[in-house]
Specification:
The chain is α/β, with parallel strands linked by helices. The chain has helices at residues 16-24, 61-68, 89-106, 127-142, 161-171, 190-202, 221-231, 243-253, 263-268, 292-295, 300-303; strands spanning 5-9, 29-34, 51-55, 73-76, 111-115, 147-151, 154-155, 175-178, 184-185, 188-189, 210-213, 219-220, 238-241. The chain has a domain at 5-154 and 188-214 and 274-287: NAD(P)-binding Rossmann-like Domain (Rossmann fold). It is globular.
Length: 310
């Protein structure tokens, strides 16, 4: 998509930043639309790359319309994982996603990529999972040819998930499991998801499709903990903890400004998080998935221990 403009909503976030960097590396003019666009300074773009900053809020149609005006493509990579005052899952993942899709359609944008997640379910008891599903529906209604990407758990050296496991293994004598730890996960590399977004923007065959993105190896939560803690040199006994106890802990944690655990996170761990064999995935976009083992040595916590030398 050289010599075109792509607007990336959430372009300063964990995943959005990588999408911006990937597009900028191709010579694309990238418009980073975010509530705090000054955070775009953390983006590592090649010399000469054109990155525009624009303040925008998915809940404000006027700012969304300004952000997509003149764009050839749009990516919505906004993610909200904890509700706060004025920020609800429905406001961001349903109404906000619908605003982006609707304004993109009105502006004549050729391609829209919407980032969702594996496991969406409009009938879920989880407000987060429900909102993600309803958001996809809102996007499809407004922009039928949108491409929806559903990644599994996304990892990279600066992620929250694997790094949290490493921190817990350093300070806890025993690591608690969600239930028996049997829920299956298929961690996918953030760089591969960014590559998928870039290719989906450029591939006419991706229009209107939903892709589920998973890494090359599925792990049970138990096995993932074993892998990460063993490599980190902090192997710990694993303790099964029934889900009702997790629910109580999540409700208690919910009174904190930034809760370390939410009921929605507990709900996600009740089910497998695997890419469906019935939907296209990374391979269909010509991408060979990166393994977790290949990236783990780059995690700062492991490098500090001298375990990043291969």
């Amino acid at each position: 998509m050289s010599d075109t403009c792509v607007t990336v909503f959430g372009g300063t976030g964990f995943l959005g930043r990588r999408i911006v960097e990937r597009l900028a590396g191709d010579g694309v003019t990238v418009r980073v639309a975010a509530r705090n666009p000054n955070r775009v300074s953390v983006i590592e773009a090649p010399a000469g790359a054109t990155i525009e900053r624009l303040q925008a809020d998915l809940r404000d149609r006027e700012s969304v319309a300004a952000a997509v005006a003149g764009a050839r493509g749009v990516v919505n990579a906004v993610g909200l994982y904890v509700e706060r005052a004025g920020e609800t899952f429905d406001a961001v993942h349903v109404a906000g996603a619908g605003n982006v899709a609707d304004e993109a359609a009105k502006a004549g944008v050729a391609r829209l990529v919407h980032i969702s997640g594996i496991g969406v379910d409009g009938a879920s008891d989880s407000a987060y999972i429900r909102a993600r599903a309803n958001g996809e529906a809102a996007v499809r209604e407004a922009f039928a040819e949108a491409t929806i990407l559903r990644p599994s758990v996304v990892f990279a050296p600066d992620d929250n998930f694997i790094n949290l496991l490493l921190r817990l293994a350093r300070v806890l004598p025993v690591l608690p499991l969600f239930g028996d730890g049997g829920a299956m996960l298929q961690p996918v590399f953030a760089g591969d998801v960014a590559e998928a977004a870039a290719r989906a923007l450029d591939d006419p065959a991706a229009a209107g499709k939903t892709y589920e993105l998973g890494g090359p190896v599925p792990y049970s939560y138990r096995n993932l903990l074993h892998l990460v803690t063993t490599l980190g040199g902090h192997r710990r006994p694993l303790l099964p903890v029934p889900f009702p106890i997790w629910e109580i802990q999540a409700r208690l944690a919910g009174i904190l400004p930034n809760p370390p655990l939410t009921s929605d996170q507990v709900a996600l761990m009740r089910h497998d998080n695997l890419a469906s064999p019935d939907l296209p995935g990374l391979a269909d976009l010509g991408i060979t998935p990166t393994s977790l083992e290949a990236v783990l040595p780059d995690y700062p916590a492991l490098r500090a221990m001298g375990r990043g030398e291969g």
